[in-house]
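[Q] Does anyone have a clean structure-token version of this?
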Amino acid sequence: MNNKNNFRTRGCKCAPNPQNKQWRVHSHSCAKLDVHNWLNNIRLPEKNIKDEFVEVRFKNSHKDFFISPAELNLEEGDIVAIEASPGHEIGIVTLTGQMAEIQMRNKNIEFKNQEFKKVYRRAKVSDVEKWISAVNLEKDTMYKSRKIASSLNLSMKISDVEYQGDMTKAIFYYTADDRVDFRELIKVLAESFGVRIEMRQIGMRQEAARLGGIGSCGREVCCSTWLTNFRSVSTNAARTQQLSLNPQKLAGQCGKLKCCINFENDCYLDYEKDLPDPNIILKTEKGTAIFKKYDTLNKNVYYAYKDNPNHMILLSSKRAWSIISMNKKNILPEDLEENSLDEDNKDVNLDIINPEEGNIERFDKPKKNKKRRRNKKRN
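[A] Here you go.
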């Protein structure tokens, strides 16, 4: 029985059925590398070109461009056999024609100085049958290879296996902290599975993207659903958003800083331009006040007097800038809180905290049984 999850990683909504020749299994929104062809309903000028470029996807983030003969007339979703070394590989066409060329320009791929592999043909029934059997072997192969690696005392983790469509080669993706001598491992794997072995080392983020999982937000991790480009995440972004610098909270499943820390960082940087410098000290007749923290999105600032540093006072950015301008003119306001907030924020009481909200023991309270009440009423 075919496993649907194995084909979803290749952009298929289900496994193809060679008997009924249901080749149209390509489905959008089921894989993160799906591309929407916005030129689909637009008639383009005809070109007198013998060959054209197509984009073909394989498993997970494996995607590449190939040259296809014009007489094939490939469409999105076609299962094709493409050139590989050795043998041939099976993939699914995601983009064709001018849209594929636009995608190549976006990825800065040169057309002239680079040699592209060719698309041989549309996949035959025998090709698809062999491809289905190869895909169904991948999970068992991964589990067995992990046992072999542990028996050889190798400090590495095999996270994924990708078989070539003709079952002549298998790519093993692994992660390791240090350099690993896997020459003996390749010999054992080749004898066990009877295919050519290729080892590829990937990073921790790439491993998390392949394995997937649920993040602390309760949703599936972004790298396995839609995120394709990994940007470097620094602790400065966490400081800008005033997040707790706790590695256990800021780290994702990959052990690195969460990619979502960068999502709102630019917004915080734009808002901070309208806020005063935290190194500026506010002077009043009541005393000098030092900066405590920002309420960036509301454009408010917290200050506290040096005499009472634990008591924070909320100021609007306009009030803080006005005090700074008064201090430059050697004018001392009476107090920080004078006209400090807008009319919408005057009634806000920061000291009021719902005791039920912060009490973790509220989860231990037994729930009232409504069924008993109903039974009593009936009696």
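[Q] Thanks! Anything notable?
[A] The chain has 13 helices and twelve strands.
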